[in-house]
TrEMBL record:
Keywords: DNA-binding, Transcription, Transcription regulation. Residues 1-10 have a biased composition (Basic and acidic residues). This is DNA-binding transcriptional repressor AcrR. Residues 27-85 form the HTH tetR-type domain. GO terms for molecular function: DNA binding. The lineage of its organism: Bacteria, Bacillati, Actinomycetota, Actinomycetes, Pseudonocardiales. Residues 1-28 are annotated as: Disordered. InterPro entries: Homeodomain-like_sf, HTH-type_TetR-like_transc_reg, HTH_TetR, Tet_transcr_reg_TetR-rel_C_sf, TetR_SbtR-like_C. Residues 48-67 bind DNA. PROSITE patterns: HTH_TETR_2.
Length: 200
C-alpha cells in the first residue's frame, strides 16, 4: 500500500512539475516575444512576425501560438506597457516623496508615449480606439493616485485633476522621436513645475 502511495505521489508531483515548467517556459517565451517586438517596433518599416521570432530565438510556430496575428502582438504589447506604467505609480510612491514620484512616473510616460504612437500607427483604427478606451481608466487611476498623495502632502496644487494631466501628457504620443528626445523631458519638467503647490 505504501509503495502505491509513493508511486502515486511521485507521479502527481512529476505531472505538476512538468505542467508548471511548461507554463513557466510559455510565460518566458511570451515575455521574450514582447521585448523583441518592443525593440523592433522603432525600426523603419513594418514590424514582421518572422523578424520578432528570429530576434528572440524561437520558432515561428511558437510565436503564432502566442500571437496569431501581427495586430494581436501589437495590441498585447500596448496593454503590457499600460500595465507596467500603471503598476509603477504605487511602487514609486512607496519609495519617493509624492512630487518626486510623479516626476519619475513622467519619465516612464515618455517611453510609453513612443510605444503608444508606434502601435497606434500600425494597427487598424477600430483596434487603437478600443485599446485607448480601455487604457484611459487605469492610467487615469494611476495619475489620480499620484496627485492625491501630493495634494495630501501639500506638494501638489489642490485644484489638480487627473483629466488635466491626461490631456497634457497625451501630446507626447504625437511627437516623433527627435522631438521627444529634444523636448520630452523639458515638457514634462514644465508640467511638474506647473503642478507644484505654491508656497506662501
Amino acid at each position: 500500500m505504501s509503495g502505491y502511495s509513493d508511486d502515486h505521489s511521485g507521479h502527481v508531483s512529476g505531472s505538476v512539475k512538468r505542467g508548471g515548467t511548461r507554463r513557466a517556459d510559455a510565460q518566458r517565451n511570451r515575455e521574450r516575444i514582447l521585448q523583441a517586438a518592443r525593440d523592433l517596433l522603432h525600426e523603419p518599416g513594418e514590424l514582421k512576425l518572422n523578424a520578432v521570432a528570429k530576434a528572440c530565438g524561437i520558432g515561428q510556430g511558437t510565436l503564432y501560438r502566442h500571437f496569431p496575428t501581427r495586430e494581436d502582438l501589437l495590441s498585447e504589447l500596448y496593454r503590457h506597457e499600460v500595465e507596467e506604467l500603471v503598476a509603477a505609480a504605487p511602487h514609486l510612491l512607496a519609495t519617493h516623496e509624492p512630487l518626486d514620484a510623479l516626476a519619475a512616473w513622467f519619465d516612464r510616460v515618455a517611453a510609453y508615449a513612443r510605444i503608444k504612437r508606434d502601435v497606434f500607427a500600425a494597427v487598424e483604427a477600430a483596434t487603437w480606439q478600443d485599446l485607448s478606451a480601455h487604457s484611459l481608466g487605469p492610467i487615469g487611476d494611476a495619475v489620480e493616485l499620484l496627485l492625491a498623495a501630493g495634494r495630501s502632502a501639500g506638494s501638489i496644487r489642490a485644484d489638480t485633476e487627473a483629466r488635466d494631466v491626461i490631456v497634457l501628457i497625451s501630446w507626447l504620443s504625437r511627437l516623433d522621436d527627435a522631438e521627444l528626445d529634444a523636448r520630452g523631458q523639458r515638457l514634462l519638467s514644465i508640467l511638474v513645475d506647473g503642478l507644484r503647490a505654491h508656497r506662501h
